[in-house]
TrEMBL record, chain A:
GO terms for biological process: Golgi organization; protein transport; retrograde vesicle-mediated transport, Golgi to endoplasmic reticulum. Residues 165-486 form the COG4 transport protein middle alpha-helical bundle domain. This is Conserved oligomeric Golgi complex subunit 4. The keyword Transmembrane does not apply. Keywords: Golgi apparatus, Membrane, Protein transport, Transport. GO terms for cellular component: Golgi membrane; Golgi transport complex. The keyword Methyltransferase does not apply.
From TrEMBL, chain B:
It catalyses: GTP + H2O = GDP + phosphate + H(+). Keywords: Cytoplasm, Cytoplasmic vesicle, Golgi apparatus, GTP-binding, Hydrolase, Lipoprotein, Lysosome, Magnesium, Membrane, Metal-binding, Methylation, Nucleotide-binding, Prenylation. It is found in: Cytoplasmic vesicle, Autophagosome membrane; Golgi apparatus, cis-Golgi network; Golgi apparatus, trans-Golgi network membrane; Lysosome. The small GTPases Rab are key regulators of intracellular membrane trafficking, from the formation of transport vesicles to their fusion with membranes. Rabs cycle between an inactive GDP-bound form and an active GTP-bound form that is able to recruit to membranes different sets of downstream effectors directly responsible for vesicle formation, movement, tethering and fusion. RAB30 is required for maintaining the structural integrity of the Golgi apparatus, possibly by mediating interactions with cytoplasmic scaffolding proteins. GO terms for biological process: Rab protein signal transduction. GO terms for molecular function: G protein activity; GTP binding; metal ion binding. Its EC number is 3.6.5.2. It comes from Ceratitis capitata. This is Ras-related protein Rab-30. The keyword Magnesium applies. GO terms for cellular component: autophagosome membrane; cytoplasmic vesicle; Golgi apparatus; lysosome.
Amino acid sequence: MATTTTIDVSTPESIQTTLRKIAEEENDIDTNLENLLSKQSLIESKMGAICYFLGTLNTVVADTKKLSTQISHTANLAESVSAKVRSVDLARSRASECQQRVHDLIDLQLCSQGVLKAIEEEDYEKGSALIGRFLSIDQNVLQRTAGDVGSSGSVTSVSDAVRTLENATEKMRKLVVIRFDEAVNKDDLASVERFLKLFPLLGIHYDGIEKFGKYICTKLAIKSEKELRTSLDIAKSENRLPVAFADTLTTLLENFARVIEVNKPIIEAHYGSGYLIILAILLQNECDSEVKNVVLEFNKNRRINDLIQQIKEYNRATGGNMPSLSQYQKQSVNADKPQPKDIDPIIVELTIMHSRVELYFRFLRRKVKLDIDASNVEDVEKERQTQRLNSLLNNSGLSRQMQELLSNYLLLERHFMEESVNKAITLDTFEVGQQCSSMVDDVFYILRKCIRRSLTTQSVNGLCAVINNTASCLYNFINALKVPLKNGYPSGYTDLAYSAIQSAVQHGKLQSSDSEKARSNFINRLNNADMSTEFLETLWETIEQDIKNTFPTLSVTEQRIVDSCISELRTVRDTLKACVNFGMTQLRSSAVKPRLNPWIDQFLNYSHILSEEELADYEAGETFIQTLIVQLDGFLSQFKNVLTPRNFDAFVSILATDTTARLERAIKKTSFNRLGGLILDQEIRALSSYLTGVTSWSVRDKMTRLTQIATILNLEKVDELTEYWGPENENETPSWRLTPQEVRILLALRIDFRMDDIKRIKL
Amino acid sequence: MEDYKFLFKIVLVGNAGVGKTCLVRRFTQGLFPPGQGATIGVDFMIKTVEVEGEKIKLQIWDTAGQERFRSITQSYYRSAHALILVYDISCQPTFDCLPDWLREIQEYANSKVLKILVGNKTDRDDREIPTQIGEEFAKQHDMYFLETSAKEAENVERLFYEIAAELIDQARNKDGANVNKTTTDSIGLGNFGTKATQNSCCSSFSSNTSQSTNENNNSRNNT
Ligand SMILES: Nc1nc2c(ncn2[C@@H]2O[C@H](COP(=O)(O)OP(=O)(O)O)[C@@H](O)[C@H]2O)c(=O)[nH]1
Ligand SMILES: [Mg+2]
């Protein structure tokens, strides 16, 4: 490209030249531009080419479409081939159907020829088998065949044969029924079973099962009547009198279960599946009335109705809730209510009876359900039969009986539990050297026994009700524990007015021993409450395990009900804990505070402004802290062995809290110099190490404030504090519990610190 | 753990056939069950509701009405926070049995339990117990009163929501009196030393209109 390197504008000529040159350059540029523009058409043509190729692509699409049409053609072809195959199949199945018809016709002839002879010869098996074959031929097809054959005019024997066989069926049905009834009348079991098998061949399944069921029922009725009559004698001879009726009921239900067990395979073999429900329903009617008799006999013999009546009246009189202790003591005089030891065996018998029925129902459900599921019918029908089974199980007389047994059981069990617990409370004894009295062991033994027994009923509802009753019972038990706790700990008396007591003792010792008794009573209840929380936790842990073992497959709802009932016991535990805490606060206000405060206030009598000389004297003599520790130790040792370990720890915790708080108060009323601060630090360390020694938990936390106070008062100089104060120290020492405000006040207790320094320090 | 502020136990009692199970189903599942069998012993449903911005878990115990289940059902009374006593407004005998039920409640339930009398089946046109009679009976015996239809879903949500609201109030009053606030997830009546102060009146229950509009919204959401 041309460039004007030198522009000479000195003369007009040169300007002209330059102008020309510039014009030329402009021309050049124009040409260049045109050049470039001319390329545009090239690019456009290329673009055109691309568009053209796009057109080609369209053909590809068309080709593809063609291909897919061909494929679908092929598919159609294949379909039509397979349709042909299908029609070949159809033809073949028609052929075999035809063959079947021919067979049927041949058989029909044979059957009709044989059946009359069989009847004549009283060969019921053969006759029934022939009829069974006849009935197995599709009767509609048979009618049509008879028509077809008949119209061709060749053989008339088809409809003849059908007629013969129909008549023979009628006849045979009557005969079999007659023979069956004869066998029943003669009580000929072999013949009963022989003819039982023929009913299904003759197409009268239901009649067969019904007749058989009735026969079994009469037999069972006779048997159970005898058993019931002799049950008491047998029980006596076998030494099982207390469970005589449970035994009778067991035998009775076993009889029914055996009938199902033994006949299920027979019925399934000859009748097919799905017929057991009919037998079960028939048997259940009989079972209901027999069980009713046993239960009636049981109720009469064990005086159940009287007992229930008495308990109900008693409950109504006491408002349903357990009477309070004093009430109980009054009422225990009148013995007009069933005694726990008397109803104990009856409760056991009831649980056995209930569990037997429960197990019988489970057995029945399993067997019949299996049979229904195996039957060859539509799902809707199976569902309907299952409904029948459920209604049999839920609405039968037996299930009502069972519910009534459970109801009576629960009423008696509740009475047993409440009365036994009451007794345990009334007969509570406390042995010297024990921390708890007898009632804790006794009460939990009873509760455990009742819950375990409820499990043996095999009823979730029963179990849950007993757990609920246990919770109620425990609330009453807690009330019994609470009364002495509410009255407070009477120690203040003996300790604070020692001399007054001394004189009272001289005048007849009464008050001292009374107060002593109340005191140990209080401690004992506090221990009882603590021990009970532990026992209660153990109780529900073991019953949770027992429940898992007894009911391995609970439904979701059942599990939730059980869990919810058990969680009630948790609520009771919390109430017990609150009870312990309440007792502790009582102990604190009447035993701890009144004694502790004067001991600690002694601090104020020791000067903490000392010279070196005085320091030596101080250390040589009896120091404040030594005295305090001796006093605390004496005080704690009174409680060490009488309180349960947990209660003792709680007690020490209270003591530590109160001691530190009171001591802090005293410190804040005292002035210190350098050596006084030193002594304080030693004193706090001694106290801390003493308290650490007496408990199993760490008292460090309780001592934190005091330790920090001692640190501050033991400083050499005010600004030394910055070494301790500040976030960088927090890893080594616990964070400061004191506010900057408090720190300044504490620093001001040091008479040798200047106010200005204290104010200046940054916190 | 599930997140809820309060757990309340509500127990329904009353003669067999008055519609207890239907009321519970209507409330917990939003349906009117066709011909289910009679309840055996107790049944148990849970529904979490929100009242005054608080999540409340309601444990609803449906009981069998027949005498032979009484010793099972009674055992649930003591821990109940609320007892719903149901009768059938079209069946005089179910109303006549109410005093027996009250005696039983008196005997076994906590004396501070919230009691609600419910006349069910208002959809029926063969009413035998006029509303006023039910109301008076409730007033006499210190109970709240409400008429419902489990079939038409009338007042069912309202019943349970108002119980929840009332129980929250009671629990709050109790909390106020109680220094120890740590037991937030369940309140046990009859706990040591603290008991809710009973505010017993029939008025607040039936005059709470804002609650019932709320309920209509809810029932629409459910169906
Ligand atoms: N018309 C009408 N029928 C009801 C209502 N509630 C329940 N039922 C019917 O009353 C019968 C008994 O109901 P159920 O809930 O089993 O009573 P429960 O024994 O108290 O539990 C059933 O047939 C229900 O269909 C209702 O609100 N209106
Ligand atoms: Mg029901």
